[in-house]
Amino acid sequence: MELFHLIHALWIHKFKIAAATLLPALAFGMFTYLGPRTWSLDLLYHLPLEAVSYKKLSDRFYSPENITRIADALKRDGHTGLAEELLTAEGKAGLQPMIRLNILPGYIDFENKERLKISLERSWADNITKLEKLRSELLSVHLRGAGSESLTALSGQVRHNFSQELPLYLIHDQLRSNRLTLNARLGQIEGNRFEARQELLLNERIRNNLENISKDGTRGMDAMTVNFEDLKFEDPQQTLAFLPLPAQKSLLDAMIVRRRAAVEADEAEHAYRTAMLALTDELIEAVAAKMTPGYTLDAYRADLDKRIAALDSEEATDFLKTHIRYVENLALGYRAMTNQDKPIPLPRGTIGKTLFAAVVMLILSVLVVSIAEYLRRAQPEKTSKLT
Q: b/e string for 323-338 if b means 16 or more Cβ within 10 A?
């Protein structure tokens, strides 16, 4: 079909094209203008986080168990539709359009590391290592919803979840990490205990041999065979055999005293860490048993006060006080920096969306008219060929 015929067809159907372009675009614009508006709200937290800490926080927050807590609370407040929207979202990717955790400053992206190039002078592995050590300063929880009232309700539950419920999971994880550290140290002490006692026995035997030499005099010294391997001092370049007898005895006495002190210190540390391991196990069981809907960080803090009042050991009291300080720091960090939840309406973009719809409909209208004109003109040619 020639260009002239195409332009002629478009001119003939100009009113149809205009109607097909403007009416749907105007209808779409009216729907956009009169339809439900999207609102947003940001909760800001002062949480210095590294990559590992952020991943733990993100995984815990988006876990099905935690989202179910938020949804159940919304249902109790009468926001059933919003609760179902949260429950039916497909994992973290489905929840992020409604609830997104953002790291500030924005150039730190713990989740999409391939988008960040720290330096071209280092290898990519070194860049990843540098990224792991970066610390964010702030955490922003960005909420988005279709209604101001529902978004305010969601903000209240997320705020409560961050300040009272989510820290319980982090406390449980921290206690389990402390337990692993205590258990590893106990294993190290128990593994070194045999060697330390053997060294102490060896030093005492050598000291007794020197005492016998001192009592027997020269005759005894000539008669005894001294094992130079046993007499080696801690410095491999020196040996007790080359020192005068009184100096040898003095040095061995000092070594025995020091070794006994080290053994006693290990025993005391073993007893302390064993007791702290038992206390940590009690805390882990207490947190796991009470992590139910309705149990909050404030309630856990009150339970710790009752527990510390019942302790009779100074070491256990100090250990529990350290844990209480950790809980208090969590309570401060997971408290939003702003106290008012005021949703902000997002621009509707009515004009831009209407123009986009008009352009799309104009292209479709021209395409339909062109195809129709081509078919109309091709029909007579086909009929003439047949006759």
A: beebbeebbebbebee
